[in-house]
Amino acid sequence: MTRTAKRLRIAVLVSGGGTNLQAMIDKSRGGSIAAEIVAVLSDRPDAYGLERAKKAGIPAFVVDYKSCLEKSGREDLPVDLDELDRRQRILKTPDPVRRRVRLSGLVLAERELVRIIDSYQADYVCLAGFMRLVTPYFINHFNSGDRRRILNIHPALLPGFPGSHGYEDTFGYGCKWGGITVHFVDEGEDTGPIIAQAVYPIWPDDGLDEVRARGLGLEYEVYPQVLEWLARDEVIVKNLPGGGSRVTVTDPDYHDILRRWIKRALE
Ligand code: GRF
Fold first, then answer.
1. Global pTM value
2. 183 in catalytic set
């Protein structure tokens, strides 16, 4: 933490190992970012990220997506399902009845996520290996006007290789450089405004394991750095006249930080 920053309250959503979560916890506890992880939530009871939270004394919650998806369609929803279905871009199920049943199940689970996250007064919600699609209900709850409060980390250089296999897709395509992206979440899949990206080389002898390890090493630097920028109000989002938005980071050390990431990736 180098400049004055208010300490952000962060809720982290995980589905798996939670190594990004761990990087955030470590940097937060070490005082190098002005952010505190106030709650960790998962859609899976066996997510190791929940253990990491408990070990760090952070409240951890499981939201039972399976039972919500089974109940769906039979409960009052906090949204108009028809409108949600018109807006949503994530579910591709062609049959409208099945699509709405699925959507309503997701919303039921998200209602629980929202309830818990709000009870911790989180400033931002960080998706960190959260393997569920989020609906416009969840997104609109946290985004109001120009204020965007949901972030995601993606293991590829967006807009290339969206979806859940960023490292595999980057490596499989034969890319000579790979990358990682931290972005705000919008209603598409991995399409929201990009805040930060970092790249790493893929050397001729590398296998997928080397590629993933190099990318993850960068993820652990970049995601916490973005939180620090947000805490210092150094992330400016501008809406473009033709639609879409652009993010600018105003940190005077921005160039040095990017150089550091590149240097590190080349080591
Ligand atoms: C990371 O590669 C992240 O980019 C992607 O999912 C993975 C999560 O890993 N969204 P972990 O759970 O943080 O170890």
1. 0.95
2. no
